[in-house]
Write a structure and sequence with these properties.
This protein is α+β, with helices and mostly antiparallel strands. 58% of the residues lie in helices and 16% in strands. The longest helix is centred in the first third of the chain and has 38 residues. It is elongated, with a radius of gyration of 34 Å.
Length: 350
């Protein structure tokens, strides 16, 4: 009976201590978060409670499993399994802590910086750095777990001896993946494209929604997602409408009759823009830019704070100007001549 109760008591005690320690840690982090409202660090560190509990429980069981008599016939196997869990949970905890610290620093920087373009650049870099750190932590932890097996230690010398050949083979096999990896790092630190940028790729207009080490997601205006390899943005031309600032300039064209009141249209444009909240007030001009045998081309130039709002301004100006012309100056709309052309008079010269 004692052989059964003893392991149960030790495991239950470890679980109770783990739960109490996790609850106490969470309570302290809550209190620190309420006391230090200027930084979100303490609230973000609450994400570390679960991996902390796992590390603590594994450490308690690892130090007491022999005395507790947990599977005494397989004591070495139990210790090895707990070692593997300890390595994995420690890596998980360290990644969570690093993520919380980085996210806290980014949140404070974003709140203090008035430059939206710079904030999006830092966000892109932070996201990619977090992914690199997580990938490195996973690789290191897996390597450490493999080295706990005696067979791996014995094979270590041969593995190191063939590392150069394997590296060349892996490099050739993963050439595309490695290219995307380095392209992702180049995007992060070269500041060519950032999360939140408005871009045009393959004649598709959209906003960069996510950037990883291997692919980039563009959300189009109609809510579609285009997934592209990041190497595309380092090897092919594309339009970045947010480069250097989010402000945008847009144009609106009308084909109207030669008798159209251009001066009145210019005054009407100024009145229309005042009633459009998306217009940022920087530019609102109108001019005749071209002429054809039947019409003249009138162009309006308008501005807005970003690409979405400049689209709204353009559509509103186009619609309201046409409505005004049709109601107040219908003669200004393009017309198709249906009468016969006048005959050319005879040449009076002999």
């Amino acid at each position: 009976m004692e052989n059964v109760l003893r392991p149960v008591v030790f495991v239950a005690a470890a679980l109770v201590v783990t739960l109490l320690a996790g609850w106490l840690l969470d309570l302290l982090l809550r209190a620190a978060d309420a006391r230090h409202t200027d930084t979100p660090l303490w609230g973000l560190l609450r994400r570390c409670v679960t991996p902390f509990r796992l590390v603590l429980a594994t450490a308690l069981l690892q130090s007491t499993h022999r005395r507790a008599g947990i599977l005494p016939q397989h004591s070495a196997g139990v210790g090895h399994a707990l070692t593997l869990v300890m390595i994995a949970s420690t890596a998980w905890l360290l990644v969570r802590i690093a993520t919380a610290v980085v996210d806290s620093a980014y949140a404070r920087y974003a709140a203090a910086s008035p430059n939206d373009a710079r904030v999006r650049r830092v966000r892109t870099q932070v996201t990619l750095i977090q992914r690199v750190v997580a990938a490195v932590a996973v690789v290191v932890s897996i390597a450490a777990m493999l080295l706990t097996f005696p067979a791996m230690k014995v094979a270590g010398a041969s593995v190191l001896a063939s590392a150069g050949v394997l590296g060349i083979v892996a490099g050739i096999a993963a050439q595309s993946s490695l290219g995307n990896l380095f392209a992702g790092l180049q995007i992060a630190f070269g500041d060519t494209v950032r999360i939140g940028d408005t871009v045009v790729v393959d004649k598709e207009w959209g906003t960069v929604e996510e950037i990883t080490l291997t692919f980039l997601v563009v959300r189009t205006w109609d809510e579609r997602r285009i997934t592209m390899p990041v190497s595309y943005f380092t090897g092919k031309p594309y339009e970045n409408w947010s480069r250097g600032g989010a402000e945008m300039t847009g144009t609106v064209f009308w084909h109207v009759d030669h008798s159209a009141p251009v001066a009145l249209m210019r005054d009407r444009l100024a009145m229309l823009l005042k009633d459009i909240p998306e217009w940022d007030g920087r530019t609102g001009s109108l001019a005749v830019t071209d002429t054809t045998p039947n019409t003249i081309v009138v162009r309006a130039v308008v501005t807005a704070r970003n690409a979405d709002e400049v689209w709204t301004v353009r559509c509103a100006v186009r619609e309201r100007m046409i409505t005004w012309l049709a109601a107040e100056h219908p003669y200004a709309l393009p017309r198709v001549a249906t009468t016969e052309a006048e005959h050319r008079p005879a040449d009076p010269r002999p």
